[in-house]
UniProtKB/TrEMBL annotation:
It comes from Nonomuraea cavernae. It is found in: Membrane. InterPro entries: ABC2_TM, Nod_factor_ABC_transporter. Keywords: Membrane, Transmembrane, Transmembrane helix. The chain crosses the membrane at residues 21-43, 55-75, 96-121, 133-154, 161-180, 217-237. It is a multi-pass membrane protein. The keyword Isomerase does not apply. Pfam families: ABC2_membrane. GO terms for molecular function: ABC-type transporter activity. This is ABC-2 type transporter transmembrane domain-containing protein. The keyword Transmembrane applies. GO terms for cellular component: membrane.
Length: 246
C-alpha cells in the first residue's frame, strides 16, 4: 500500500509542477494578506506579530487544501485518464493520501513568503523548535479542509467546485479569527467562532508558536469536523464510483 501511496503522490506532484501558477496563487494571497493586515497594524508587537503570522500561514493552508483540492479533484473527474485509474483495484486510500501529501507540499511552499515577510518587516520572534512545531500544527489543522476539498471535488462539477470552495473559504477565515483577532470581532462572530474548523486549526498554530493555551472548544470541534469531513469524503468517492463505474 505504501508504494501505491508514493506512486500517486509522485504523479500528483508532477501534475502540479506542470502548472506552476497554482503554487504562485497559493503563496500570493497569504503573503498579500500579511502585508495588508499584519505589517501595518501588528508589526511592532512580538507576540501579536507572531500570532498574526500563524494566522496568515493558516489562510494559505486552507486555500491550498479547500480550494486547491476541490478544483483539481473535480477537474480530474472530467478527464479520460481518471476513468482508467478508477478501474484499478487500489481503493480510495492511495489516491486520497497522494492528494493530501501533495497539498501539504503546496502548503509548505505557500508559507515561505509569509515567514520571509514576518522576519523582515515585523518583530515576530520564534525559536526553531517552535517554528517546526508550528508547521506540524499547520499541517495537522489543515486535514479537515483537505477532506472537505475532496468531498466537494467528488460531488460537484469543476465550475461549481470553484464557486462553492471560494464561498466557503472567506467565511471560514473570517469566523475563525484569521483576518482579525476573535476578541475584537462582533459578539455573534465570537459566539460562532469556536464551532468552525478554522478556529480550532489556528488555535493549534497559535499554541505551537507562542506557547499560549488553546481553546478546548475549538480543538474538540476541529476533531469533530475532521471525522465528519473524512466520512463525507469517503461517501462522496463511493457515490461517484457507484454512479459512474457501477
Amino acid at each position: 500500500m505504501s508504494s501505491l501511496i508514493l506512486t500517486h503522490t509522485r504523479y500528483q506532484m508532477l501534475e502540479q509542477m506542470r502548472i506552476p501558477i497554482s503554487w504562485v496563487a497559493s503563496a500570493f494571497f497569504p503573503a498579500a494578506s500579511m502585508l495588508a493586515f499584519v505589517v501595518p497594524f501588528a508589526a511592532a508587537d512580538p507576540v501579536a506579530a507572531t500570532r498574526a503570522t500563524g494566522s496568515m500561514m493558516m489562510i494559505g493552508a486552507i486555500s491550498a487544501a479547500l480550494i486547491g483540492l476541490s478544483i483539481t479533484v473535480s477537474q480530474d473527474r472530467e478527464q479520460p485518464w481518471n476513468h482508467y485509474l478508477r478501474t484499478l483495484p487500489a481503493g480510495p486510500l492511495p489516491r486520497f493520501a497522494g492528494r493530501i501529501f501533495t497539498s501539504m507540499a503546496i502548503m509548505a511552499v505557500a508559507v515561505i513568503p509569509v515567514l520571509v515577510i514576518a522576519a523582515l518587516f515585523t518583530e515576530a520572534a520564534i525559536t526553531w523548535p517552535r517554528l517546526l512545531l508550528g508547521i506540524g500544527a499547520l499541517l495537522a489543522g489543515s486535514v479537515p479542509f483537505m477532506l472537505i476539498g475532496l468531498f466537494l471535488g467528488f460531488t460537484l462539477p469543476s465550475k461549481a467546485a470553484i464557486a462553492v470552495s471560494q464561498l466557503l473559504f472567506f467565511p471560514m477565515c473570517i469566523l475563525g479569527g484569521l483576518f482579525l483577532p476573535p476578541q475584537i470581532m462582533p459578539d455573534f462572530v465570537q459566539a460562532l467562532s469556536p464551532y468552525v474548523p478554522s478556529r480550532g486549526a489556528v488555535e493549534l498554530v497559535w499554541s505551537a508558536t507562542t506557547g499560549s493555551a488553546a481553546d478546548p472548544a475549538g480543538l474538540v470541534m476541529l476533531a469533530v469536523w475532521t471525522v465528519a469531513a473524512g466520512v463525507a469524503a469517503v461517501w462522496a468517492y463511493r457515490r461517484d464510483e457507484g454512479r459512474r463505474f457501477a
